[in-house]
Design brief:
By secondary structure, this protein is α+β, with helices and mostly antiparallel strands. Helices cover 29% and strands 26% of the residues. It has four helices and five strands; from the N terminus they run αααβββαββ. Strands 4-3-2-1-5 form a five-stranded antiparallel sheet.
Length: 129
């Protein structure tokens, strides 16, 4: 009876009751890639999770292409440093990109397109070694 009705209501937005109780940083890990369908107009957005905020219930996302571009740029800089070539002024410039802020309560459907890298939690532990 009643529990089936509440389960149906909680799943109407594509999120189960257990998922709704998870903190955003566990539900949408940093550097994972997602596609969301948002209320009220079923707008589809996708991107790489850059950050989440529990207080405002928001997810900051970067376009996948922007993340790939930044990673390629970083690899090029490392190769230039290893080869000893001097970097030009353009390499020091700022790359502009779009940041999308998604209110988690507007997500009707969430599809994970790519999991976060396994080593992301260890990136900040380099000083301890």
């Amino acid at each position: 009876g009643e529990s089936a009705t509440s389960a149906d209501q909680s799943s109407s937005n594509g999120v189960t009751e257990n998922q709704a109780q998870l903190p955003l940083y566990l539900k949408y890990p940093v550097l994972s890639v997602w596609e969301f369908v948002l209320a009220p107009n079923n707008t589809q957005v996708s991107g790489t999770v850059y950050s989440t905020d529990v207080t405002s219930q928001t997810i900051m996302m970067l376009p996948v292409t922007a993340v790939e571009s930044l990673m390629q740029h970083q690899q090029q800089q490392q190769q230039q440093q290893q080869s000893g070539s001097s970097s030009n002024g353009a390499a020091l410039g700022t790359t502009a990109t779009e940041i999308r802020i998604v209110n988690a309560t507007c997500i009707r459907k969430a599809t994970q397109l790519k999991a976060a890298p396994d080593n992301q939690d260890n990136d900040n532990d380099d000083d301890d070694k």
